[in-house]
Amino acid sequence: MSVYATFCFLAAAAMLITFINSKLGKWQNTIAITAGSLLLSLIIITAGKNGFTQLQDIAITELAKINFESFLLDGLLGFLLFAGGLGIKLESLKDQKWEIAVLALGGTLFSTFFVGYSLFYICQFIGIPFDLIYCLLFGSLISPTDPIAVLAIVKKLKAPKRISMQIEGESLFNDGFGLVIFVTLFSIAFSGEALTVENVATLFLHEAIGGIVYGFALGLLFHYLISATNDHAMELLLTIGVPTAGYVFGQMLGVSGPLAMVVAGIMIGNWTRKNGFSDESKAQLDHFWELVDEFLNGVLFLLIGLSMLQFSFHQEDWILMLIIIPLVLLARYLSVRLSYVGFNRFRSYNPYSIKILTWGGLRGGLSIAMAMMIPVDVWVFPEKHIDVREIILVMTYGVVLFSILIQGSSIVPLINKAKEWQNKQS
Fold first, then answer.
1. Residue closest to 235 by CA, chosen among 288, 290, 294
2. Which of 167, 217, 314, 382 has the lowest CB atom count within 10 Å?
3. Could you read off the pLDDT of 357-382 as tens digits, one per residue?
4. Contact assessment for residue 108 and residue 178, using Cβ atoms and an 8 Å cutoff
5. In 276-311, which positions are buried (b, 16+ CB within 10 angstroms) versus exposed (e)?
6. φ and ψ at 381, to 5 degrees?
7. Whole-structure pTM over 0.90, yes or no?
8. CA distances from 113 to 328, 336, 399 (A)
């Protein structure tokens, strides 16, 4: 089959699972799709081990046609982050700007080094020769919360406003900072270059600050284009230009496309919504992008579940997977807890804030995409054909699945308790 045909079948499978879930289940669609695709992966693997190897080979071959990291980082990500930015209310963002900045910057940095060093010492203790730089690299890709997973699951539960804005804003903005850490450690690990503080600072300014400035310019351009027409269909069509040509041009400039999409989305979702769109477009904007968001999220989370078919699993992988899940959760809790030590000095918060931010700090496809960028054949156990990429991929996959299936499906009671407390206060 062609890549297009494979994509069409994946989209149809995602829609089928969503339809069945709407009739029989009560899960969030993204959780249902991930669980359904994971179950399908297990069935295919089991069939392969019982003589039906052709089925497994066909599935792996077809999935390989869609390069997951390129499909997400160069394609879907722009649409999903732009859609997320459209839904952010600027007034709420301003109210929580310092909290979001501390969580996105300080929290990500703390978690990266806590996970990295803890994993290194654990590996030394259990006899797995996993170098410190690779442990830190894993810490950098697993520490930023995934905006796609967070917006797809947590946002729709309608948590109290301040909690919701903190977790949404953090997940949307910590990508740029997390990417700088990842690229820096990636260069140290695999290029052998000696990076200086000046180089890292330049990289951050170019990627993160450049992405924000470019996103502002892009949002301004499309604001004036949308304001210049009263054609309802044209106004909505113009918004598609931001995550398509706008995102690709940002990559060509070498700035952070994800941050640019968030900034442009916030501008168009607030400024243009108020002053640029016709009344008909204002009513349809959210429905239009909600449909795009639901469709692309369905395909993405289906691919997350099916990605298991492409991984190899060894005993060492399973051991590290069981260790890393509670370790990442502990790092998340400590980063949030330490941040709130400072926050509580200036204002009061919902008593369930720390618990929700910890348990709702979901990881998703972005972490898997970054893990897939790691080169193959950097051996840890050559005699067992276990390399760095396999170990990091399996650990990442374990955290992502736990995050989506367990954390995503069990956070509802926490949010309901936070709502009850908020209602009592008002």
1. 288
2. 382
3. 999 999 999 899 999 999 988 889 88
4. yes
5. bbeeebeebbeebbeebbbebbbbbbbbbbbbbbee
6. -125, 90
7. yes
8. 11, 15, 17
Consecutive H or E run containing 377: none
Torsion angle of the four alpha carbons 187, 201, 136, 331, in this order, in degrees rounded to the nearest 10: -150
Closest by Cα among 238, 394, 258 to 323: 394
Distance CA 329, CA 336 (A): 11
Cα(255)–Cα(214) distance, integer angstroms: 8
The amino acid that residue 117 corresponds to is Y
Could you read off the pLDDT of 181-222 as tens digits, one per residue?
A: 888 888 888 876 666 777 777 777 888 889 999 999 999 999
Give CA separation, 144 vs 111, 148, 202, 303, 333, in Å: 9, 12, 21, 20, 13
Per-residue confidence (pLDDT) for residue 52, from 0 to 100: 66
**Distance of alpha carbon 400 from alpha carbon 394, whole angstroms:** 10
Q: How far apart are CA 415 and CA 426, in angstroms?
A: 17
- What contacts 250, CB < 8 A, 6 or more positions away? 211, 214, 215, 218, 256, 257, 260
How many C-alpha atoms does 85 have within 13 Å on its Cβ side? 29
